Amino acid sequence: MQVAARRRAKRETATGARPAAPVARVRMSGTERRQQLLNVARELFAEKGFDGASIEEIAHRANVSKPVVYEHFGGKEGIYAVVVDRETQLLLDRMVSTLHGGHPRAMLEQAAVALLSYVEESQDGFRILVRDSPVASSTGTFSTLLNDIAGQVEHILGKQFAARGYDDKLAALYAQALVGLVALTGQWWLDARKPKRDEVAAHLVNLAWNGLSHLEHKPRLHIH
């Protein structure tokens, strides 16, 4: 035993190697630990999807045991549902907050910028939302979220249509078209990342506001 220990010490001295020190677990409050696990899970679900992620890897990345994850969320489905609910509410709040007051074009510009800003700043969250969720959450799926946003847009368009002599019954159709236009472009832009955010928003508003027959050659935002 002593001979083996001396030989190991000589090898470490010669190579500079040292035994790996165990990683100390950080003491956290229950709230802090829950938030840490959500952050780790959010990153992992965005990277691998629901099926590719596991409780084992969530626990490993958070440097805790699996029972700690089960204690807080009950399992992978539980932590995934909380992650989806939080991201859904965050995006919905951002979008709806832009749709109050001001000129309709300004609201359209602000809504486009709000969604693209979310894509830019919360890439992991958006990747999770646009996947087909295999787990029920209290706020529903991404399509449910888009329908909620479209409902807000429909209310605004209905007033504008009526004021301008258009059939306000078509407001729902146009609302779905506008929200779908921005959302699908956001999914594409998540990976393309060109042009820059405001330029993408300007082109979206250009198409939506002017129509194909009245496209501006060099659209720009009017809110800056």
From TrEMBL:
Bilayer-spanning residue ranges: 170-190
One GO MF term: transcription cis-regulatory region binding
Entry annotated with the keyword Cell division: no
Family annotation (InterPro entries): DesT_TetR_C, DNA-bd_HTH_TetR-type_CS, Homeodomain-like_sf, HTH-type_TetR-like_transc_reg, HTH_TetR, Tet_transcr_reg_TetR-rel_C_sf
Source organism, top-level taxon: Bacteria
Basic residues composition-biased segments: 1-10
Gene Ontology BP term (one): negative regulation of DNA-templated transcription
Region of interest called Disordered, as start-end residue ranges on this chain: 1-22
Signal peptide annotation: none
DNA-binding region location: 54-73
Keywords: DNA-binding, Membrane, Transcription, Transcription regulation, Transmembrane, Transmembrane helix
Keyword Nucleotidyltransferase: no
Residue ranges occupied by any HTH tetR-type domain in the UniProt entry: 31-91
Name the record gives this protein: TetR family transcriptional regulator
Organism: Amycolatopsis cihanbeyliensis
